[in-house]
Automatic annotation (TrEMBL):
Record-level GO BP terms: glycine biosynthetic process from serine; tetrahydrofolate interconversion
UniProtKB keywords: One-carbon metabolism, Pyridoxal phosphate, Transferase
Residues modified to N6-(pyridoxal phosphate)lysine: K248
PANTHER family given in the database record: SERINE HYDROXYMETHYLTRANSFERASE, SERINE HYDROXYMETHYLTRANSFERASE 1
GO molecular function list: glycine hydroxymethyltransferase activity; pyridoxal phosphate binding
Domain Serine hydroxymethyltransferase-like as annotated: residue spans: 17-406
Cited SUPFAM superfamilies: PLP-dependent transferases
Catalytic activity, reaction form: (6R)-5,10-methylene-5,6,7,8-tetrahydrofolate + glycine + H2O = (6S)-5,6,7,8-tetrahydrofolate + L-serine
Associated pathway: One-carbon metabolism; tetrahydrofolate interconversion
Pfam families the record matches: SHMT (PF00464)
Annotated EC: 2.1.2.1
Source organism per UniProt: Meripilus lineatus
Protein name as annotated: Serine hydroxymethyltransferase
Enzyme class: transferase
């Protein structure tokens, strides 16, 4: 509360957001309404808890604390030290790690900075690394480049060679990787993906890495919540370094973590190298409010209920995949072991961009994605779907069947619109989807589906939000 003696220039410090900045408040309200009214199926997203949002929006944002607990470059860090140590402890606990064998840095701002810091720790400039190629499901930060451009720091500062999926099975081609590694002689092999619906054979990867004296790093950003629950193979048994984001299946705030192995012959100094790589090599002061949010999310991931959540995420993804297959659609690897499904649209002659656009128009949030065999990640032939967020809204298999039916109708509508557009261009597709025209039915199908999706979505809670008091905010129009 401002007092009678608060100078005018400081009164602004006490006013609530809605009062001081109604424009930003309105944008937040619209986004809340969108999340409440739609179906979130982006595999890299989730809906974090109220506690995490409270921590993330806390007064901890005011504090600088470059360095590590008990070794900071600024004063006043006694509570921040307590927080960071607690977060580290929970991170090890969530993945059932012995602190004598593993350590963790909880400061990375995101998955990308965590990965670049890990590369900085493990490699010298221009050292060689191998990661799963982006068109096969790998991540940009795993060494991606195109014929025309080295577009990520991981390919600009290091030499990289992608490994691939076996085109006949669409599983990782471990034999091919072993053969490539014999010639390329990498210093680091990265496993982990952004779009791979199957589990990993870490023992085989370790064997290949050892043949070349290479480090093995797993980026478990997508599956970390499932690994914490013991519902995926355990990368910590085989890897030197494990990175993750904290906001996907792990359901925390947006940030990253780097776990490093202690005491193995080759990695005696990994702790110092990783910590120095995060700060000062790649980052400045940690975001302590985010670290508080991570700590809170990790506490949830250590509770007995976490395994039930992770199991339900996987059961929902399996149901989603099976429902799509039962309607004649093609999935990469025909199914899933984790939270995501990769849907190959190429047999339908429909691009991922068009289905993503159509789904946006009806309140289903998905993303276009390359599928195995796509010549380029720029024109993806598929869609990636994930069930983490819908599971956080309490949906189970029977509900996911309804979602699968919405997706089926979205495809049918997209095919109708593509036909009515009479051209392959996305702008023509959007025009016929959004403007009712005599003799054309696609735009009406969009309206009908949007209404049904909205009614269904609003039956569910939204984590961190009291939906009973939600009202449609100014600036959102809805068809009646
Ligand atoms: N990790 C990416 C994704 O999977 O969506 C974003 O970088």
């Amino acid at each position: 509360m401002a007092t009678a003696t608060t100078p005018d220039f400081n009164k602004v410090l006490y006013a609530p957001l809605a009062e001081i900045d109604p424009e930003v408040q309105n944008i937040i309200d619209k986004e809340t309404w969108r999340q409440f009214s739609g179906l979130e199926l982006i595999a890299s997203e989730n809906l974090t808890s109220r506690a995490t949002m409270e921590a993330n929006g806390s007064i901890l944002t005011n504090k600088y604390s470059e360095g590590l607990p008990n070794a900071r470059y600024y004063g006043g860090n006694e509570y921040v030290d307590e927080l960071e140590i607690l977060c580290q402890k929970r991170a090890l606990q969530a993945f059932r790690l012995d602190g004598a064998k593993w350590g963790v840095n909880v400061q990375p701002y995101s998955g990308s900075t965590a990965n670049f810091a890990a590369l900085t720790a493990l490699l010298q400039p221009q050292d060689r690394l191998m990661g799963l190629g982006l068109p096969d499901g790998g991540h940009l930060t795993h060494g991606y480049y195109t014929a025309k451009k080295k577009m990520t720091a991981s390919s600009i500062y290091f030499q990289s060679l992608p490994y691939a999926l076996d085109p006949s099975t669409q599983f990782i081609d471990y034999e091919g990787l072993a053969k490539q590694a014999k010639i390329f002689k990498p210093r680091l092999i990265i496993c982990g993906a952004s779009a791979y619906p199957r589990d990993w054979d870490y023992a085989t990867l370790r064997k290949i890495a050892d043949e070349h004296g290479a480090y093995l790093m797993a980026d478990i950003a997508h599956i970390s919540g499932l690994v914490a629950a013991g519902e995926q193979a355990n990368p910590f048994e085989y890897c030197d370094v494990v990175t993750t984001t904290t906001h996907k299946t792990l359901r925390g705030p947006r940030a990253g973590l780097i776990f490093f192995k202690r005491n193995s012959d080759k990695s005696l100094d990994l702790e110092k190298r990783v910590n120095d790589a995060v700060f000062p090599a790649c980052q400045g002061g940690p975001h302590n409010n985010t670290i508080a949010g991570i700590a809170t999310a990790l506490l949830q991931a250590t509770q007995p209920t976490w395994q039930a959540y992770a199991k339900q995420v996987i059961a929902n993804a399996r149901t989603l995949g099976a429902e799509l297959v039962s309607r004649g659609y093609k999935l990469q690897t025909s199914g899933t072991d984790n939270h995501l499904v990769l849907w190959d649209l190429r047999p339908l002659k429909l691009t991922g961009s068009k289905l993503e656009k159509l789904c946006d128009l009806v309140g289903i949030t998905i993303n276009k994605n390359a599928v195995s065999g796509d010549a380029s990640a720029q024109v993806p032939g598929g869609i990636r779907l994930g069930t983490s967020a819908l599971t956080s809204r309490d949906m189970k298999e029977e509900d996911i069947k309804i979602v699968a039916d919405f997706l089926h109708r979205a495809v049918q509508t997209a095919l109708t619109l593509q036909n009515e557009a009479g051209s392959k261009l996305l702008k023509d597709f959007v025009r016929v989807a959004t403007v009712q025209q005599e003799g054309k039915v696609g735009a009406q199908q969009v309206v009908d589906l949007r209404k049904e999706v909205r009614t269904f979505a609003r039956r569910w809670p939204l984590p961190g939000v009291d939906v009973s008091s939600l009202q449609r905010p100014a600036g959102i129009e809805e068809d009646e």
